[in-house]
User: Fold this.
Amino acid sequence: MAKKIDLTAAKNGILALQGQVAINKTQNGQVVYSTANQQNNEIVYNTITTPRGGQYYLVLADGSKVWLNSASSITFPTSFKGDKRLVSFTGNVIFKPVHNAKMPFYASVRGQQTKDIATEFEINAYDDEPVIKTTLLEGSIQVTAKGKSVMLKPGQQSTLQSNNLSVEAGDVKEAFAWRDGLLRCDNDDIQTIMRKISRWYDVDVVYQGKVTNERYLIIISRYKNISQALNMLEYSNTVHFKIEGRRVTVIQ
Assistant:
């Protein structure tokens, strides 16, 4: 059994009662699950979805913390039972699970499964991104996909593209910047940057002319308006923009 919760429309306070699980939305926009000893063996799943331009912080029933970037979702049980804790998600999510060796935490997305080993990690797995990037801030994680498993150390990043799962040095600052309200792109091409801008500012992006291979560095608060973000890119004199309502044309 599953239930969808519209966080955008929901007021602060108790959103729902499911068995002995209370779902609360706090004044600062956090969503917190709290549970007593639940006698009912029925497993209830919820799905939380953030719209483009939105962002939410969630505390699961076991105390694990989850941050959802814009245009992301997570499906999870209201209480955890059995020998593992499994959640599935889409988009871009940061996890800080409560470690429990007897009931390990798993995050599943697009054929990849990530196992927590006392960690804090970020996974970027939007459907319109060519690769799944998993970046480890602290602790250790095991990433499994396409029949292969790798272990990550802090500062490392795994990438999954087609059937290839590999490990390299990661850019932790860029991966976790969105949680701190920053749009940070380090040496990214214009299409990668515009996908982020599209999700953050809820705009549609089209291109006019040949797409440049130029790489850019941009760091800006997400609370600045879109014009300020685009103006920073225009300083390079390699790209220009036209804004018409919620449509942005990239002119090169």
About this structure: The radius of gyration is 19 Å. The chain has two domains: 2-174, 181-251. The mean pLDDT is 87. The first strand starts at residue 2 and ends at 5.
